[in-house]
Structures are given as structure tokens and as C-alpha cells.
Amino acid sequence: MTTIAVLGNGRVGGNLAAALTLAGHEVTVADREPGDAAAAAQAAEVVINATPGAGSLKLLTDLRDELRGKILIDVSNATTDGPDGLPADLIYPGSSLAEQLQEALPDTRVVKSLNTMLFPVMTAPASLTQPPTVFLSGEDQQAKQTVHGLLTDLGWHPEWITDLGGITTARATEAAILFVPHVIRSTGFTPFAVSIAR
Questions:
Q1: Does residue 5 contact residue 43 with C-beta atoms inside 8 Å?
Q2: d(Cα 43, Cα 123) in Å, to the nearest integer?
Q3: How many CB atoms are closer than 10 A to CB 37?
Q4: % of the chain beyond a pLDDT of 70
Q5: How many whole angstroms separate alpha carbon 76 and alpha carbon 80?
Q6: What pLDDT was estimated at residue 153?
Q7: CATH classification code of 3-187
Q8: How far is residue 76's CA from residue 73's CA, in Å, rounded to a whole number?
Q9: Is the pLDDT of residue 92 over 70?
């Protein structure tokens, strides 16, 4: 059992919290209020950033002390929205939210994952018609192993999990968010994920 704090109580955070609780973990959900987030992060071994990516860097930088030594799983994408509310552009072109977080939080082990799919797939990967892929980016191998274990608890088969390497590889997966609005406009809000076919 892992003690987990999920920061963000929207569709992504709520979905992850429910599934991880069902898997036997001790999960606390906090909204974006600094006091709530700080208390939750302080008490957890693993913290999941499920807050809107545009505001994540400031929120989490303010939690530097609470996040020291913790694993931070960043599932958010930092984008500006278009007129229809869908992602239009990256806030950190040539970088990524995960890289910005790791630089701002040098004592925290940041792992980027679960950001290349619509939120229902995060906790039900087998619901798709073909196997999806989930990626890991991060500098700390032990932290990535912990996240790998949590992914299997969420239903991800080991062969569906791909470790891309260091935190700079997160800029590639974060850029994949730019596919999302076009796919949704083309086919509607049907769950999908980026998948590596071999």
C-alpha cells in the first residue's frame, strides 16, 4: 500500500483517486487551495499533479518543502486553450511542464506519465479496442519503478508501459496533447490514447 495525495479534484484527479483507492492504496484528494494541497502532500509518499497545467508550476513550487524527497507524478499538460476550450498551444515550447517542475523542485523526484490519453483511459486501458501505450519520463529510476507499479495497479500491462528515459523526454509526450483537439473535433469525445504499434 502506498500513501498517495492527488492534487486536483476534477475529472482526472477524481478518476485516479477512485481507481487507486480501489487498488488498495491510501489516497487523499486535495483541491488547488494551498493549505489543503500542502497538508495532503506532506502526509503522502507519492503526490500526483492532476491540476490544470497552466497553473501547476506556481502551485507546486509553493509546495517545495512539502514535496522534498517525494515522488511527484505529473499527469498534466501545460497548454493555452482555443476559443472552444480545447488545447491550442504549448505554454513551454522547447521544454515541458515536467522539466520546469524538476528544475524548480530539485529535491523532488518528478515522473511524467499518463498524459497522452483522454482521462477515462488512465484507469481503464483495457477498454480500448487495441492496447494503448503509457510512457514514463524521469531522472530517478527507483521513482519510475514505483510509478510502474502504480500503473499496473491501474490495469496497465507491463508490455504497454514504455520508459522513454530522462525528464527531457517529457517534452515529446506533452506535445502529443496537440493531437487531442483535432481528434475530438473529428470523431467526438471518445476515449483514445497514443499507442506505439509494432
A1: yes
A2: 24
A3: 24
A4: 98
A5: 13
A6: 98
A7: 3.40.50.720
A8: 9
A9: yes
Q: How far apart are CA 198 and CA 141, in angstroms?
A: 25
Kindly write down the DSSP assignment for every residue of 85-146, as one continuous string: SSEEEESSTTS-HHHHHHHH-TTSEEEE-S-SB-HHHHT-GGGSSS---EEEEES-HHHHHH
Burial status of residue 99 (CB atoms within 10 A of its CB: 0-12, 13-18, 19 or more): buried
Residue among 30, 43, 52, 25 nearest 151 (CA) = 25
This prediction has a pTM of: 0.96
3-state secondary structure of 164: strand
Average pLDDT of the residues in 178-191: 90
- Give residue limits of the domains in the chain: 3-187
pLDDT in tens, 106-153: 999 999 999 999 999 999 999 999 999 999 999 999 999 999 999 999
What would the mean pLDDT of 19-41 be, rounded to a whole number?
90
Q: Whose grid coordinates read 497553473?
A: 55
How far is residue 87's CA from residue 80's CA, in Å, rounded to a whole number?
6
